[in-house]
Amino acid sequence: MVRYIEVKSRARSEFIDITEQVHEVVRSFGVRSGMCHLFVLHTTAGITVNEGADPAVQRDIVGFLNKLVPNDPYFTHAEGNSDAHIKSMLVGTSQRIFVDNGKLVLGTWQSIYFCEFDGPRARRVAVKITADEV
Ligand code: ZN
Fold it and tell me: From the first residue on, what is the mean pLDDT of each consecutive set of 10 residues in the chain (134 residues)?
């Protein structure tokens, strides 16, 4: 079974912490030990795991990605958001995180981020929890 996390972005480019929403889905599945699979259902967004303590880290990453992939006028895609498609590809659209004792296995400073590159928009992340075979 697949469940969905709804994300509403407010800026063109931003990282949104969805760790608690993913934890809620893990709890709702009731799986003690297994794997949490996350998949972003969009071509101009991504998902990553990175520092959750200092918001300056996310700002710096977003700023760096914008410098790395500016929305250059030579892009031919009529929608005008090729930079967002490229950033989505660089960051990636899936993550897998272990589930142990009914909880996500994350490091002290790690959070799960939905990465918006062409907002503001309503977005969805598909979540599947698989249990270990016993
Ligand atoms: Zn496009």
Answer: 97 97 96 97 98 95 97 92 98 98 97 98 97 87
Q: Under a CB-based contact definition with an 8 Å cutoff, are residues 132 and 102 in contact?
A: no
Q: Which residues surround ligand 1, an ion (CB under 5 A)?
A: 79, 81
Q: How many CB atoms lie within 10 A of CB 4?
A: 12
What pLDDT was estimated at residue 59?
Answer: 95
How many whole angstroms from its chain centre is CA 57?
A: 15
- Compute, in angstroms, the gap from residue 75 CA to the centroid of ligand 1: 11
What pTM did the predictor assign?
Answer: 0.95
* 133 DSSP 8-state letter: P
- Whole-number Å distance between alpha carbons of 72 and 76: 10
* Distance from residue 81's CA to the centre of ligand 1 (Å): 5
> Which residues sit opposite 122 in a β-bridge?
8
The alpha carbon of 48 and the centre of ligand 1 are apart by a number of angstroms equal to 21
pLDDT at 134: 72
Residue 9's pLDDT is what? 98
- Ordered domains of the chain (ranges, CATH): 2-131 (2.60.120.460)
